[in-house]
Amino acid sequence: xxxxxxxxxxxxxxxxxxxxxxxxxxxxxxxxxxxxxxxxxxxxxxxxxxxxxxxxxxxxxxxxxxxxxxxxxxxxxxxxxxxxxxxxxxxxxxxxxxxxxxxxxxxxxxxxxxxxxxxxxxxxxxxxxxx
Length: 131
Fold this sequence. Notes:
This protein has helices at residues 3-12, 16-35, 42-64, 72-93, 100-114, 126-129. The protein is mostly helical. It has six helices and no strands.
């Protein structure tokens, strides 16, 4: 089986929660790599920052739709976080803030997506925490 066929099979077998966890793991790892770069190297950091901001923009927009089935309080929290991520990202780009709070927020979301015992997202919750 080719790698592409395996990847298609793996992603088609994922639940939406597992897919969200995987996306957050990927973007958080990118942020962690960007955090290792010199803050003046914005060109080397911008892709990860932009990707993270786009993920959060999408989540905020999705939660603003009336047909979204998440509880209203959770939707409001996600929208607020989305706004905060956008503002904080702009401050990071201007070198007024650090990347780490963005990483921390993503890790918290990943913990929620992983759930408690027996409710795992199918990925190792410590995978990004250990990286």
